[in-house]
Amino acid sequence: MHTRLSILWLPVLVFAASCSRTDQAGTSPDIFDAEAHVAAWVQLWNTYDLARVDELFLADTSLTYFSSEREGLIQGFAAVRAHHEGFGFIEGGKEPEQELWVEHVQSSVFGTVAVVKGIWFFGDRTAPRDSVSRGPMTAVYVWADDRYRIAHMHFADY
Prior knowledge:
globular, 6 strands, six-stranded mixed β-sheet, alpha+beta, about 30% helix
């Protein structure tokens, strides 16, 4: 009887161990650094490196994106990647004419989902605030492939 009970507990222990796993970088679903994730996304925009899209976004059809530049929902990884290509993103990147930055970053973590909020700016950082594009943004990150990836992004203009 004792052996049977031990065998019944084995799946529970395996599940518990898998829930607390960490990746090579030492992060886990319990740790979310909003500033670092936003910085990685800002780097994408400030290098126009299409390969960064592959690293940062959830690579499946459930990925969604609302752009401040286009009406409607962009659905799926292929469509989000094509959207960035439409802005001139290329493999290896290039020098953009304008800079993107995000201020007032806040985050909330709900298990393995993190919601990040902030205000995005795009233009010349030395120019007066009211002369650059800006607006609110929300990014929803999910734990996938041993790291947080963007599952939904939403931009609006002020």
